[in-house]
Amino acid sequence: MLNIALPKGRLGDKVYSLLAKIGYDCSEIYADNRKLIFESVENSVRYLLVKPSDVAIYISHGAADIGIVGKDILEEDSFDLFELLDLNLGKCNMCVAAPVDFVEDLDRPLRVATKFTNIAKNYYLSLNREIEIIKLNGSIELAPLLGLSDVIVDIVETGTTLKENNLKVYEKIMPISARLIANKSSYKFKTAEIEELLAKLEKELKNND
């Protein structure tokens, strides 16, 4: 069986809908229960529902053969795996945001609040800008409002939350979307199965362009 790690939540629903369209349906996945593993014997696939930030970990350690993960997670941490396809789902941007009246003081380190510490460090390193990282795990928008940080680095989809908190995007660091990834050993030993699914996905995405 081909073991596919799916992220829980809204992105997972979109991804599963896409997989169902290309013939990898598993009706049991829509059942109202707490199961985390779903098998479709007729399609020879097994779906594993995991936390989005854990998908790449399952793949890189071989607990799953392929999976779908946001580009932000791949950029934030180093994983030994193959990135096979941009699914163009869950599209958003990694951005620098700050209060609308923010004026940067270039004479001191910039205080940056984020949970994406490596992305932030690499971005400001490319600008040769000295920073102080303040790692937060949620409600990042609060940091500049309370004087904890000057700016934030976070994922921005619509920008509504920023506007509601009197913040705005100052820089776009990179586009983010869902990617199909594969374990390197699995790709070697299950090449035919993975390539078949990959070809069907590419065809479906091309038809939707």
Explain this structure.
By secondary structure, the protein is of the alpha/beta class. It contains 8 helices and 11 strands. The chain has helices spanning 10-21, 55-60, 71-76, 117-126, 142-145, 160-164, 184-189, 191-207, and strands at 2-7, 37-40, 45-50, 66-70, 82-86, 92-99, 110-114, 131-135, 151-156, 167-176, 178-182. A 6-stranded mixed beta sheet has the order 2-3-1-4-11-5. The chain has a 5-stranded mixed beta sheet with strand order 8-7-9-6-10. Helix 4 (117-126) links the parallel strand 7 and strand 8. The radius of gyration is 19 Å and the shape is elongated.
Outline type = elongated
Helix content: 25-40%
How many E-type strands? 11
Largest sheet: 6 strands, mixed
Structural class computed from helices and strand pairing:
alpha/beta
Figure out the total of helices.
8
Oligomer: single chain
Helix-strand pattern? EHEEHEHEEEHEHEHEEHH
From the alpha carbons, calculate the radius of gyration and give it in angstroms.
19 Å
Short description:
This protein has 209 residues and is an alpha/beta fold.
